[in-house]
Amino acid sequence: MDSKRLLVGTLVGAVVITGGGFLIFEVILGSYFEPRMIVVPREAPIVWAALLSGLSQGLLLTLVLGWAGDTSVVGGLKTAALVGFLIWFGADMILYGLFEYAMLSGALGDAVGAILQYGLAGAAIGAVSRQKAQPAAA
């Protein structure tokens, strides 16, 4: 993967991860998570930290999709959805097991929501990372 695809994939992934996360976890599933989470949201979010998180996750997905060779929309969706689930299932289970973090249904719901969030980001990254077919050598 060249540096242009890496940069574009990272930025597209960051936008979809950040925007999709807000849409999925705040707008669509907010009423599901509110009674199940035992965390206190900040009164004023630290936006730069959230943006750095999106860039980090966008870069991770772009690298994983590049390594896996999934440079299509469907391939990106499948691989990124699995990666997102595994990341957040692991993180949520350790937080659930060690801290007064959430109810089990909230932790599991978070991991399932990550399938949609990361799947959408992977599909977007796959769409912008598609390589044009090389002409056959004569």
How would you describe the overall organization of this protein?
The structure is a single chain. This protein has 138 residues and is an all-alpha fold. It has one domain (3-129). It is 75% helix and 0% strand. Helix 3 packs across helix 5 (104-129). The longest helix has 26 residues, at 3-28. The radius of gyration is 17 Å and the shape is globular. The mean pLDDT is 88.
In short:
The chain has 138 residues and is mainly α. Helix content is 75%, strand content 0%.
Give the helices and strands as they follow along the chain: HHHHH
Number of helices: 5
Low-confidence stretches: none
- Count of beta strands: 0
Beta-strand share of residues: under 5%
Strand count, sense and barrel status of the largest sheet are: none
Averaged pLDDT: 88
The share of residues in helices is over 70%
Instruction: Count structural domains.
Output: 1
As a whole number of angstroms, the C-alpha radius of gyration is 17 Å
Secondary structure class reads mainly alpha
Shape verdict: globular
Distance between the termini: 25 Å
Write the layout of secondary structure elements.
Layout (H helix, E strand, L loop, with lengths): L2 H26 L1 H4 L13 H22 L4 H26 L5 H26 L9
Question: What characteristics describe this protein?
Answer:
mainly alpha; 5 helices; 75% helix
